[in-house]
Amino acid sequence: MDRPNAESAAFKSNEIGADRNDYVLKRKDRSMNLKLSSKELKKEGIEKTVEISEANIYSCYQCGKCTAGCPTSEFMDIPPHEVIRLLQLGQIEEILNENTIWICASCITCAVRCPKGVDLSKIMEALRQIVLRKNVNHVHPNKVSKEKLQTLPQIALIANFRKFTH
Amino acid sequence: MIVGKRLNSIGVFICHCGINIASIVDIEEVKKQLSVYPGVEFVKDYQYMCSEPGQLLFKQACGSGTVEGVVVASCSPRLHETTFRRAAIEAGMNPYRIEIANIREQCSWVHRDEKEKATEKAVDIIQSVIERSKRNESLTAVSIQTTKKALVVGAGISGMQAALNIANSGVETYLLDREPSIGGRMAQLSETFPTLDCSQCIMTPRMVEVGQNRNITLLTYSDVEEVSGYVGNFKVKVRRKAAYVDWDTCTGCGICSEKCPKKVPSQFDRLLGHRKAIYSPFPQAVPNKTVIDKENCLYFKTGRCRLCAKACPLGAIDFEQKDRIEEIEVGAIVVATGYDLYEKEKIEEYRIGYCEDVVDGLAFERLLSSSGPTQGKVVRPSDGTVPKEVVFIQCVGSRDPNNHLPYCSRICCMYTAKHAMLYKHRVPDGQPYVFYMDIRSGGKNYEEFVQRTIEEEKVLYIRGRVARLYRENNKVVVVGADTLSGKKIEIRADMVVLAMAMRPSGGIEELSKKLKIQIDGNGFLAEAHPKLRPVETLTQGIFLAGCAQAPKDITDTVSQAGAAASMVLELLSNEELSHDPTTSWIDEELCAGCGQCVSQCAYNAIELDEKKKKAHVNEILCQGCGACIVTCPSGAVHQRNFTMSQYYSMIESLV
Amino acid sequence: METVSYMPGCTLKTAGKNFEESAIRLLEILGVTVEELERWFCCGTTYSLSSDNLMNHLAPVRTLLRAKETGRRELLVLCSMCYNTLRRTQDLVLHDQEKRDKINEFMYREETTFSGDEVRVVHLLNYLKDNVGFERVAEHIIRKPSDLKIALYYGCMLLRPEEVSIDESSEDPVIMEELFSSCGIEPVYFPFKTECCGSYQTVNKIDIVLSRAEQIIDSAVNNGADMIVTSCPLCYHNLDSSQERLADTVFGFRNIPVIYISQLLALLVGAGDAADYSLHSVDPRPVLKEKGLI
C-alpha cells in the first residue's frame, strides 16, 4: 500500500510566487450545498425522467437494496440508490456528469428486488435517453474496431448500440 | 304497526357546524322555507349543536312539550345520532323520535361551488326527513340479560393479563390456549428490552397466579370449535384435545418424557432443539402436564412401545382418550391469540444462502435463553462453534409492499439491538453488525438502549438492506449496502439472524369467522376504530388484545390487555344491556313461510318455525340492516321506524 | 411428430451456431420438428425500457405476427435475449390498449393485427418441461457421464422481470436443475447462477465483464463444477472469451469450459457430434472426454 502523500496531486500548488504550502483548491463539481425550492425540484429533466420511465421516484425510501444487488456498481461513480436520491432532490445535472448510467448493464435485478416497486432499470434508461436524444452518442458505431465487429456476437453489438446510441 | 297516526309537531334545529355548513348553505333561507312547512312547530339554528349550549337548546325543546319529534339538520348521524338520542332521554322524550338530516357530508361538503343549489338541496333533505319523522313511533330499547362470565382466547401475556384483571374483579373467566401450557411467546424469550429482565422470571409469577386464581378456569390444549349467541350471551363449544394423558392424575414428574425413545424437533425451540413424542413444552409449564404428539408417537404409528405407560408411576397414560367438546356460556370474549413470524423461506433472494446458521429472531432467543437448547451459549447450530462475525438483518419481509408485507413490525429494531447487545455480552471478542433502514425506538428508555448498543457495545450499524445471502466455505456471505457512505458491503458471517416480519398466529381466519369479527387488509384482527376504539371489534361483546390486533411490544400488549379487561368489566357490570330497537319484525298474516329472509340474514337473526311455517326475527341479534325487508316477496317484513310508508313519504317530498 | 415454430434470432446462426444446431438435433430425437419462421426480424435484443418510444417494439411485434400467421400457438426461442424481448413486448401489447392500437395502426400494411395473446413465446426449457416432459428427455439418454459436476448458469434475461421468468422464482430458479437431475447429472451449489455477466458492456467496457466473469467462474470452480452450462449466447460469450485474459491477469485463476444446455443434452442423447468446437475459447473436449461424453 502506498504511503499517504500529504502533497498528493489532489492539491496543485500555485506556481507563481509559490510558497510550498499554498494550495489551489478547486470547488468540487458535486455541489455540497443545495438550495432547494419547488422550482428546483420540478425541473424539466426530472419531469422528463418520470415521463419516460413511468416510475415513481418519490416511492424510494433509500433502502439501498438496488446498490447491494447491482452487479456493476463497483465501477460506478455514484451508486444506484444515490441516482434516485439526486432525482428526488432535483439534481439531474449531477447524475449526468457521472458515469453511472453508462455502467448499468440493464440486468433488471434492482427492479425485481425493490421493496417499493420503483423500476430503477427504467429510470436508468430514461436518463440515458435524455442524453442520447440530444444527438449525443455514448458509443460510436463507426469507430468500433474491425476485430471486435468480427469476433463479438451480434447480440452484444446490437444491444450495446441500442442502449448507447441515438 | 300503527297506521295513520302521525306526529304533528316537529321541531327543527339547523346546525351551522361552524363554517362547514354555514359557508355554503344559506341558513336564513333554509329557515325561511322550513318555517312555513306543514307540521313544523319551530325552526332554530345554532353554531354547533353538538356543543354544551347547543345540547341545552335541544334538551329544552325536547322537554318543552310543544313538539312531538325533533329533526336536527347537521353532520352525518354516524357522528352524533347517539349524542342527540341520549340528550332526548335526559329531557324526557323518546329517543326514537329524533332524526338527523345530513346536510353536511351529503350536501355542503360535496357542493362547495354551488351554494344556491346546495341550499335548495338542504331544504329538500330536511323536508324529507321531516316527513319521515312524522311517521316515527316511540320505541323502547330491547334489554338483554348478561352472563357474568368471560372467555379469553389465547393465554400469552396479553391473555393472561386480561384474564387476571377480569378474574380479580370477581368475574369468572375461562382462559383458553391451543398449546398444552399458558405462557405464549414470552416463555420463549431470553431477556426483555430495555431492562434485560429475564423473560421467564418476570412472567412465571404471573403464570402461577393465573394457575392458582379461583376465578380462572384454564382450558389449555383446546380449540374454539363453535361460537353462537350474541353480546352478553355467547355459547362457546370448546374442543378439549386428547392429550392421551389423564391430566387429573398426571403430576408432571416427567418420567414418561425421559423414557420416551422418540425425539422430535421442538417447535418451542424453533427446531433448534428436540423434545420427545410425549412432552411438556417447557419446565415452568402451567398446567404442568404432559401430552402425547400423536403424529410422532411410536405406539400410534406402529403399535409398539408404550414405554411411557410402563414408566408412569400413577398410570396416567391413556391411549384411548378422545377429543371432547365442552360447552361454556360467557357474556364477553377477549381475543388475544398473539403472533408468529413470517416464514423466512418466503424471501427468495436469501433462500439460496440458507443453512442451519441462518435463523430468525425467535430462534436466536432460544439460543440466548438459559433454558434453551444450548443453555444460553451462543453457538452455531451447524457445528457448535462460537460465531465471531454475526450479522443481524432488520426489516426482513416488513416494509416491503412490492414483494412481501407493507407494514412495520414495530419490535424488530428493539429486539435486534437487544440481540446484538446480549451477543456481545456473551462473546466479547465477537463483532455484531446490524443492517437497518431506520431505528424505531419510541418507547420509554428505548432510544437510550439502542444508543448504548451502538456506543458502548460497539455494534456496527449499517444503513441499508441486504440484497442476497449465499453460502461459501462454511460461512454465509451477506451482500448489502450502506447508503450513508454510498458503498456496497459484503460480510462473510458465521451466523445470520433475520428479524422476520410479525404476522398474526396461524388459524386466525377460521377463528374470526367463528366469532364473526373482521380481519384487516394485513390479516390482523380489525379494531372498531384505530384511534378511539382500539380494543373493541365491530361485534359487540368481543374485544381484542395484543399482537393479534397489530404488532406491538410487551408494554403495549399489557396495557391493551388491561384496557380490554376494563371494557369487559364495563359490559358485564350492567344489569342489562340495551339493544337498538330499530329492528325488523314479521307480519305473520302476510308471511308465506318461504324462508328466503332466513338465508339472507347475515346475523342469523331470523328463524323459520317449521310447524307454523312462519318466520320470526330475534330482536336481539337483528342489527337492522334491512336485507330481509327487500328480500321478502310477500312484503311481510317491516322495520321499526324504517317503514315503507316512511320511505315513500321521503321520496314523495323530494320529487 | 410434433412441429413447433421457431425464431432463431441473429446470433444463433453465427456465433451461437452450436446452440441452435444441438437444440434442433435434440428436439428431432425427442420427436419434435422445428420449423423456422419463413420471415423473422431481429428482435432488437433489448426490450425498450422507455415508455414513450413505440418504434422499438415494432420489430418484435412483426416477428410475432409472422408466428401468428403460421397458425401455431407456440413460438420456440432459444436465445434468452429474444425470449425476454418477445415476451415483454407481447405482454405490453396484451395489457396496454392504447399502445396496442397505435402499433397496429402504424403497421397498417400488415394483413393482420396483433393483440398479444395469439402466440405464446416459449423458451426451450419450458418447452422441454411442459410439452415434452423431463422424463421423456431422460428416456432418450444413451450416454451417461461419469461423475460430471455442472454449474447451471441462468443469467438475467430468462428470469427478470418476474412476469416473464421461465421459473416461478427469479431469485432461486430450479428448472434447469430439475432437467439435469432427471437426466442423472447433479448440479453443484452455485449461488452466482442468476448474477449478471455484464451483458452488452462487453463491447466497450470489457473491465466490467472481466470482473463479473471472474466472480461467476470462481464461484463455479470453488463449488466443484467441471463445466458451466448456460442458455444465453451473450453469457456464453462473456464467460468463455474472458477466460484467456483472466488467466493472464489474475493469479491462481482456473479455467472452466462453458457449453450450452442443448450441447450437453445432445451429447447425452447421442446427437452431439456436429458441434463446432472451434467456436469455444476454452476447449471443453478434455473434460468431455474425461467424463466419457465423447
Q: Tell me the number of helical segments of chain B per DSSP (H or I, 4 or more residues long).
A: 18
CATH topology of the largest domain in chain B: FAD/NAD(P)-binding domain
Tell how many strands the DSSP assignment of chain A holds: 2
CATH overall fold name of the largest domain in chain A: Fumarate Reductase Iron-sulfur Protein, Chain B, domain 2
Q: How many structural domains of chain B?
A: 5
How would you describe the shape of chain B? Answer: globular
The helix-and-strand class of chain B reads: alpha/beta
Low-confidence stretches of chain A: none
- Kindly provide the radius of gyration of chain A, computed on alpha-carbon positions and rounded to a whole number of angstroms: 20 Å
Task: Give the name of the CATH architecture of the largest domain in chain B.
Answer: 3-Layer(bba) Sandwich
Q: How far apart lie the N and C ends of chain B?
A: 26 Å
The largest β sheet of chain B comes out as:
5 strands, parallel
| Structure summary, number of beta strands of chain B | 34
In the residues of chain A, how many domains can be counted? Answer: 2
CATH class of the largest domain in chain A: Mainly Alpha
Largest interface: A-C, 39 and 43 residues
Oligomer: heterotrimer
Strand content of chain A: under 5%
CATH H level, superfamily name of the largest domain in chain A: Alpha-helical ferredoxin
Summary keywords:
heterotrimer; A: 166 residues; mainly alpha; Fumarate Reductase Iron-sulfur Protein, Chain B, domain 2; 2 domains; two-stranded antiparallel ribbon; 10 helices; 44% helix; globular; C: 294 residues; alpha/beta; Glutathione S-transferase Yfyf (Class Pi), Chain A, domain 2; Rossmann fold; 4-stranded parallel beta sheet; 3-stranded parallel beta sheet; 11 helices; 7 strands; 43% helix
